[in-house]
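Handout, section 4.2: multi-component inputs.
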Amino acid sequence: MGEDQSEICYAVDDNGQYVLVPSLGWAPKNIANAQAWQVIEDKVADALERVKAGTASPLAYHMARHQMSVGLLAKYVGVFRWRVWRHLKPSGFKALTPDQIQRYADVFDITPEELTRIPSSADDKEQHDKNG
Amino acid sequence: MDNIRIPFTHRQSSHCESGVVSNLLFHEGLDISEAMAFGVGRGLFFGYFPFIRVNGLPLTTFRCAVGGIFKQVTRRFGISVCWQKFRQPRAAMEALDRKLAEGTPVGCRTGGYWLPYFPPAFRFHFNMHNLVVYGKEGDDYLISDPVFPDPVVCPGRDLMKARFARGPLSPRGTMYYFKEVPETVDLSAAIATGIKKAAWAMLHTPGPVIGIRGIRFLANQVEKWPQKLGNRRAALYLGQLIRMQEELGTGGAGFRFMYSAFLQEASRHLNSGLLNELSARMTLVGDRWRDFALMGSRNCKNRATEMESYGAMAEILRECAEQEKSIYTQLLAVARQNEHPKIILKRRQA
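Output:
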């Protein structure tokens, strides 16, 4: 896992016996993981751009940040996919009631104000550092 | 609410479900290692499901369905279990509290995304995580998560969210615990049945996507990826495959090393030289799987040489399929013999 929380894996010792040893990480695995995060980061950056350009609502940014698809977010909020899809557009987002905004905010564990605010790049940076 | 702390021995393991089973059994006085739980629970499997998508990429699995190891192991050992699912998150947490108050450690299935003690780099939406809750302090739960070196503490809110993660295979608050554990269990019979079931599933499951046929199917697909998907998508498919094989607590090489460890342990118990030999061969197959991952990762980074084309990777997979087929055929033969030495495991007295 992280630097201090190592995974363990199976390895053969000098006598041919299997032992459990802390994993030191393995390059191919790290490459595959880095690739997966790159895809997520690209999606977040893309969403952020669209939000700033006014073609998507801030919801799109938070959805991407939490690696969610429309279907998954719809499940969490408990509404149909097409409604989430509509809320991803600025016009649909504006029509949300405070109650609905609260439900979205609860899923992402943020306040309604944070959800409705157009995210700055700083938020984005912070997230990247966290994911490091 | 009073604080509860059930004396529970946390032992780190490489895979969550087999680790949970092993630790729960240890708590009941049965010393079963993780690899043993994995083998008896016929955890080894292979399936390539291009029609099931995870993050838009095909699903490859190297283990049986979630919950399968727990179900198989308890059945083999004749342990009666209680298995519950919930609609209401609150009801699920109350049921958990009640069991803890009775002094029973409880296994829970959760999603990985909402658990705050997960390092951020490992937060993905996957719903196949397992952990043991063994206590409560205020609103915080004491958790033995087998893939972590030490027990962890998790706020109740987050645990509730994780137990009700949504998406494919959502856990729906699933929790499980032992109701009654027999005084003695027949280990040799359990090992033989576990091997038989795993080998049979790998060799004879109908359909093209599972077992040895599944590996060959995957090889054929891998070969076609660059033409079919273009280099970028092909690299993504490959990356996902490598992650399924090496990440997600497989203990390396898509559980092949863990299974070798099980076979080695089984050979000691059953006093079988052949099992030991098969364990060594399984290790070699695991090494080939790792070669595949290594080559794949170079392709992901566009650093592959001519020799490391998708075709070459497909060849490695075919070689793995060939080797594994011969191993499982022999395993099946060993397991079907009737004269195993009888190993009766007694419960440690508390």
